[in-house]
Write a structure and sequence with these properties.
- The chain is an alpha+beta fold.
- The chain has 2 domains: 60 residues; 76 residues, Glutaredoxin.
- The chain has a 4-stranded mixed beta sheet with strand order 2-1-3-4, covered by helices on one side.
- Helix 1 packs antiparallel against helix 2.
- The longest helix has 14 residues.
- Bound molecules: FE2/S2 (inorganic) cluster.
- The site of FE2/S2 (inorganic) cluster has 12 residues, from helix 5.
- FE2/S2 (inorganic) cluster binds next to helix 5.
Length: 165
Amino acid sequence: MNHTTIIRRPDDITDEMLIKVDEIIARRRGTQGSLIPVLQETQEVCGYLPVFIQEYIATGIGIPGSAVFGVVTFYSFFTMVPRGRHTVRVCMGTACFVKGANETLNRIQHEYNVEVGKTTEDRRFTIEAVRCLGACGLAPMTVIDDDTHRGMTSNKIIDVMNGYE
Ligand code: FES
């Protein structure tokens, strides 16, 4: 009996993306330690590493899919779920919390209809609640992508987030 599982290609993985992934694999094939750089570059192209892509890479490099899966799940910078174009990190450390970080987070969830740890349906934002970011003097603070925003109360946060398309 044939136990081969057909893994469906997610709708958001386009032909153009696969062509780029082919190029990434071709550039690194045969090089030792190429798996992690291949996965990093592929994640930049596809936004995440679904099982379909993991199998695609495994076949391309000529290693078992389980080896790829092991690496993807080991390193926290790899993700198997789609992320938003922007990552919003609301600091929930003590200094930020006492200045209303919780209300900020609630406002975001309500405004964009998204839960903490999840991505909005339009893939615009991924929302995270994080521990002290080490800049308590700026409390309450939120980091969007690489930008630090001080004094991010529930009144201000939506205006700021709307500056990110
Ligand atoms: S508690 Fe938010 S930066 Fe320290």
